[in-house]
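Deliverable D2.4 — example input (structure tokens):
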């Protein structure tokens, strides 16, 4: 979906770690540290430019390639000592990216400035509070998925009340319940919201995510709620089934994203705001670069003639020009040998590495289709095969669109890939490992695997959560040779939280181990 993108100021882009073009910061962003009042729309714009929503070097180099992409096995991993121990400093950066880097602190700034308005102004600008909540809830759920219990209801006090307080850790399940219930209320709000002409004009500019389209905000809200309900469905199936059934049986009341033109993307404007994942992928993946993993590339894609193979990967540069990924038990020296001889495939240059136009991906239609397919298969709510196959088609179309819409670096020459024909896609759907057949468990495994492929590196955090929740695909991780450890099931709290919020940390310290499951992880 193409949306109008702002011309962002050079100072603003410097502040958020991107590239500069002009000097109109006052038109689009108000620094909360430099003023006592701010325009809510400008504050919301900055909230959307969080470094963990935009595709940034720092996120990909330090967290995606080192944690979520590695644990989801989207990256070829060399077998080495401490191969599954992420940098504590980098994990702390991810933690702080939520609290002080533009999500929680920015939401509290919006909340504080909203409450300082007159009652008439509040009624007029209430929309900014509501769309900010959707972003906050999406990001908060991800934090829970990584760490479990987190400070939430009391967090951000310095921005909100100008008082520095140590926030308690809220129970992870309680947070999820709050998010799911609040998203239901937001759905009702978006269905009935009426905006003034002035606010509509402001929203169309400041809402750099959806351009002020309240129908899309409603669909994003319900799709997010569907995701969270399915995330808890193995832990509390009764609640999840009841609420998902109500949603899917009443699409007029609970519309969700159902086509690629409705994908929730923070799109780039390559002349002003560019995707910055090239160095993140090539610096952070392995010492050799963004190498393909054997299981994903060879076991799941090449072996099944997946049409996305060519748009995901560049083949090796050896004479055979083969698609070959790095096996999980390969030593560093063996990996270096394979790499130096040009055997190993890497991330596709045109689609990812040299593309300034890779968007920040919050939600896709394909994910919704796979969520529906799971619900239909488990609870007999509809035709699961139709949603499963629709999800695959949407995923193929999405990634080929990324390739075709690419804005290449000036030094890179590219030719767009042609979207696979219907016949090619149908042939893939008929592959024995892909075809929607078998027992219920076998069908669910296929749904989970296809959703995992669709998430890929652009939504590696969601993929890691789903792999833990479902147990699929069964990824072949080699044990750490120094400790016999496999990837953890949660991240450890940052040292600064233990030091500076020690009283509240003590209440959750017993859960702070790498093998303490997040509450929804009962697989």
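Example output (designed residues):
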């Amino acid at each position: 979906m193409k949306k109008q993108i702002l011309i962002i100021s050079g100072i603003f882009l410097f502040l958020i770690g991107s590239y500069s073009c002009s000097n109109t910061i006052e038109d689009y962003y108000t620094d909360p540290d430099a003023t006592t009042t701010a325009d809510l729309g400008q504050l919301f714009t900055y909230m959307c430019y969080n470094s963990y929503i935009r595709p940034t070097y720092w996120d990909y180099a330090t967290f995606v390639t080192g944690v979520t992409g590695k644990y989801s096995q989207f990256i070829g991993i060399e077998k080495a000592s401490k191969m599954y121990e992420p940098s504590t400093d980098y994990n702390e950066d991810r933690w702080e990216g939520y609290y002080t880097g533009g999500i929680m602190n920015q939401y509290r700034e919006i909340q504080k400035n909203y409450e300082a308005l007159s009652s008439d102004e509040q009624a007029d600008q209430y929309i900014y509070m509501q769309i900010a909540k959707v972003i906050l809830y999406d990001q908060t759920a991800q934090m829970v998925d990584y760490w479990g219990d987190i400070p939430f209801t009391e967090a951000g006090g310095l921005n909100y009340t100008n008082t520095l307080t140590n926030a308690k850790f809220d129970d992870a399940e309680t947070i999820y319940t709050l998010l799911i219930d609040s998203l239901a209320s937001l759905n009702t709000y978006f269905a009935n919201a009426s905006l003034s002409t002035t606010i509509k004009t402001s929203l169309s500019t400041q809402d750099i995510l959806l351009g002020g389209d309240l129908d899309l905000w409603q669909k994003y809200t319900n799709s997010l709620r569907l995701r969270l309900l399915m995330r808890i469905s193995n832990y509390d199936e009764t609640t999840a089934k009841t609420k998902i059934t109500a949603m899917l049986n009443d699409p007029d009341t609970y519309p969700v994203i159902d086509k690629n033109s409705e994908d929730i993307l923070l799109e780039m404007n390559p002349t002003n705001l560019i995707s910055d994942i090239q160095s993140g992928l090539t610096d952070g993946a392995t010492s050799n670069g963004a190498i393909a993993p054997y299981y994903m590339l060879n076991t799941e894609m090449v072996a099944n003639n997946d049409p996305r193979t060519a748009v995901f990967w560049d083949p090796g540069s050896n004479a055979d020009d083969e698609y070959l990924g790095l096996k999980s038990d390969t030593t560093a020296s063996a990996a270096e040998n394979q790499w130096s001889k040009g055997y190993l495939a890497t991330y596709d240059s045109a689609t990812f590495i040299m593309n300034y136009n890779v968007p920040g991906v919050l939600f896709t239609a394909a994910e919704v289709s796979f969520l529906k397919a799971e619900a239909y298969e488990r609870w007999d709510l509809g035709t699961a095969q139709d949603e499963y196959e629709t999800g695959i088609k949407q995923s193929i179309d999405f990634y080929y669109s990324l390739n075709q819409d690419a804005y290449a670096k000036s030094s890179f020459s590219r030719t767009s890939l042609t979207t696979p024909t219907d016949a090619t896609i149908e042939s893939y759907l008929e592959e024995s490992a892909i075809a929607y057949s078998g027992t219920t468990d076998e069908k669910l495994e296929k749904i989970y695997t296809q959703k995992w492929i669709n998430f890929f590196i652009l939504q590696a955090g969601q993929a890691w959560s789903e792999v833990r929740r479902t147990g699929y695909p069964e990824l072949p991780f080699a044990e750490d040779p120094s400790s016999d450890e496999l990837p953890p099931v949660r991240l450890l709290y940052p040292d600064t939280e233990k030091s500076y919020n020690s009283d509240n940390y003590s209440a959750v310290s017993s859960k702070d181990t790498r093998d303490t499951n997040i509450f929804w992880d009962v697989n």
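The longest helix spans residues 119-147.
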